[in-house]
Amino acid sequence: MLLVDDNAVVRDVLERILRMNGYDVVAVASGEEAVAMYRALSAAVDLVLLDMCMPGMDGYDTYRELRGIRADVRVILCSGSADPTRVERALADGVFAFLGKPFTPSQVTTLVDAAVGRKVDTAPPPSPRVCPSSKR
């Protein structure tokens, strides 16, 4: 997975959340770095978690560049202050989902799991075992 966020704190927290849930993560700080990294690793990257609002190349422009490298790129955009029109345009252009900040670790992992097709165990927990009485 490729993680792109210009905020080091957000990037570090997201990277930890994703790694704790079994994902291999390459994290970069800009759209330009994301494009360069994706050129090198596109065959191995199954998902890009991409901040929408970054200096320089923003998330939507980055997405368009990534799509030029590999048309089937799967992207989740995230932001706390993105232009709704730009978000809608990105979704219409094929972005998998938009995740608004702030978000919980559970929201991130649920959406990422859905994006990569990871099956989540939804089976109910096993019933507690009842030990037979030892009284006779």
Percent helix among the residues? 40-55%
CATH-scheme architecture: 3-Layer(aba) Sandwich
CATH topology tier name: Rossmann fold
- Please state roughly what percent of the residues sit in beta strands, choosing from under 5%, 5-15%, 15-25%, 25-35%, 35-45% or over 45%: 5-15%
**Whole-number tally of structural domains:** 1
Quick one: how many beta strands?
Answer: 5
Radius of gyration: 19 Å
The separation of the N and C termini measures 60 Å
Average pLDDT reading: 87
Query: Can you count the helices?
Result: 5
What structural class do you assign from the helix and strand content? alpha/beta
- Low-pLDDT parts are 122-136
Overall morphology: globular
Taking strands numbered 1, 2, ... along the chain, how are they ordered across the largest sheet? 2-1-3-4-5
Give the topology string: H per helix, E per strand.
EHEHEHEHEH
Sheet with the most strands, sense and barrel status? 5 strands, parallel
Highest CATH level, the class:
Alpha Beta
CATH superfamily placement: Response regulator
